[in-house]
Amino acid sequence: MFSKPTPLWIVLGGFGLACMAGGINAVGFLGMHHQAISHMSGTLTVLSNELAAGRFSLAVYAVAVVVSFFIGSVLSAAIIRESALKLGRRYGVVLVIESALLFAACRMLMTGNYAGDCLAAMACGLQNAMATHYSGAVIRTTHMTGIITDVGIAVGLRLRGVAIDGQRVRLLLLLLAGFFCGGILGSLGYTHIGFATLLIPASLAGLAGVGYFCFRHWNR
Q1: What element of type H or E holds 25?
Q2: Which residue in 9, 68, 171, 201 could disulfide with 118, CB within 3.0 to 4.6 Å?
């Protein structure tokens, strides 16, 4: 249960990060290899399929994307040092690094270099590991399977007359809405400007990082 109202910076930040991830993932699906970038379930399935079929070149690509996401998660944890959301931690540093990775990914992909997918995956790993929970709610901004599952559990419990934490459910639905909206915007962006669409989440991550520095300083 949430013991107090969710801070506005978590609400807005969660929605924004989920929206960014949805856009990045849409570009990944529509791009060079038509693969998910912000979550690894599909990529691991691709790896299994390609190894079983003996197509090792695509298997190497899938391994590189998975490893990149993993490295991003490791780097994020090393910088922040904690998994729970709390004002004052080094989220701004992570967001600035994510921004740099996305700018580099955009440039690579625009020149036909598939390594850009790896940098985008690393950026998503960084973002997803920024915070894994807040007051009992699992916070994931780059993939929605767990969130949909948690909302489904809450609905099932409510149908049985069991009390649920409405604030927690609203936060999860907000993350889901953000990812969905980001996917729409990413798809529309790719249709009109291609891989340059990544410049949008890259800029937003950079601005969010700088904004967080200012916000933390103001709260001090």
Answers
A1: helix 8-30
A2: 68
Euclidean distance between CA atoms 79 and 67, whole angstroms: 18
If you ran DSSP here, which 8-state letter would residue 163 be given?
-
The rounded distance, in Å, linking the Cα atoms of 152 and 146 is 10
What are the pLDDT digits (tens) for 3-41? 567 788 888 888 999 999 999 999 999 987 788 899 899
SS3 136: coil
Does an H or E element contain 189, and which?
helix 166-193
pTM (two decimals): 0.89
- Where in the chain are the domains? 15-215
- What does the alpha-carbon distance between residue 31 and residue 17 come to, in Å, rounded to a whole number? 21
- Type of residue numbered 158: R
CA 29/CA 182 separation, integer angstroms? 13
Q: Who contacts 39 (Cβ-Cβ below 8 Å, separation ≥6)?
A: 25, 124, 142, 143, 145
Q: Give 66-132 as a DSSP string.
A: HHHHHHHHHHHHHHH--SB--TTSSHHHHHHHHHHHHHHHHHHHHTT-THHHHHHHHHHHHHHTS-S
Q: What is the largest CA-CA distance in the chain?
A: 57
CA–CA separation, 157 and 176 (whole Å): 20
CA distance 45 to 62: 9
**pLDDT, mean of residues 99-118:** 95
Burial tier of 216 (Cβ tally within 10 Å: 0-12, 13-18, 19+): middle
